[in-house]
Amino acid sequence: MTGRIAFQGELGAYSHEACRQARPGMEAVACRTFEDAIEACRAGDVDLAMLPVENSTYGRVADIHTLLPGSGLRIVDEAFVRVHINLLAVPGTALGDVKRAMSHTVLLGQCRDFLKTHAITAVTGADTAGSAKVVAERGEPALAALASELAGEIYGLDVLARQIEDQANNTTRFLVMSRQADHTRRAEKMMTTFTFRVRNIPAALYKAMGGFATNGVNMTKLESYMVGGSFTATAFYADIEGHPEDENVKRALEELKYFTSERDILGVYPADRRRD
Question: Where would I find the ACT domain in this sequence (predicted)?
Fold first, then answer.
């Protein structure tokens, strides 16, 4: 597939790696913020946007669930990317030369055992690939970066140690966003993502969820987020297994209507093969 796909971060970020894995034929375009990546897609400057939504170790990616409903974009795919963390340094550096390691605070927290074993001090950077870029620019053997091998390739750094993360199953889930929805059944196992707001009646959420239980629909995610800064206006974000045209999913969504004031299907897309 040709075209352009936007992501947040510097070249070499894990979002860049997700673009290369999920859309290898597309040109990856770096954006400063999530909002910039969304706007680039919405404006037609790129064809797709790659957005991280959750990590198996650290949970939800901040702000994403509130950005998606108002983005005007639709989910057309998901991608699960194993986050392999590597110690990168300027060429010729030995592991014993490294005294400090720079990275995003989340990544630093995922390598505590390695850093402690090698007496390396953690230094907080703006992001992972950006830290690799800083290390390359400074050229100091004592300062290394924690980032992807892709970042090492881009910024000309040596890999001193590979896959040093504490959690062997550390994985980030990404969503591929497009201006156009695609609800075609493109795989045997499909996912549907939607948002909704419950009506102001007793036990509305409990009743709204009842249709999924009685119809045997597996809900893999249900999260709440506040709307418009109000403590009383709450919306919900949900992922379910199945396609809206499946009889059991259709019945569950019909039942949902009785107990909600707003509903919006954000996307219907194939389940990533690594989901299970």
Answer: 193-270
Query: Between 107 and 174, whose confidence is greater?
Result: 174
Domain boundaries, the chain: 4-82+170-178, 86-161, 190-270
Of 7, 114, 174, 212, which is the active-site residue? 174
Q: Please tell me which residue in 93, 128, 172, 260 is annotated as part of the active site.
A: 172
**Tokens coding 227:** 């709307």
196 catalytic residue (yes or no): no
pTM here is 0.89
Contact between 104 and 126 (Cβ < 8 Å) = yes
Q: Is 162 helix (H, G, I), strand (E, B) or coil?
A: coil
Domains 4-82+170-178 and 86-161 share a fold: yes
Superfamily of domain 86-161: Periplasmic binding protein-like II (3.40.190.10)
Most confident of 219-228, 229-238, 246-255: 246-255
Place 233 in a pLDDT band, splitting at 50, 70 and 90: low
For residue 232, what pLDDT is reported? 61
Q: Mark whether 172 is an active-site residue.
A: yes
| 190-270 CATH | 3.30.70.260
Distances (CA, A) of 205 to 33, 101, 199: 33, 46, 9
Looking at per-residue pLDDT, the higher value among 167 and 241 belongs to: 241
- What average pLDDT does the segment 239-256 reach? 97
**Mean pLDDT (whole number) for 106-131:** 93
Mode of pairing for the β-strands spanning 100-103 and 143-147: parallel
What is the sign of the dihedral through the CA atoms of 132, 103, 85 and 62?
negative
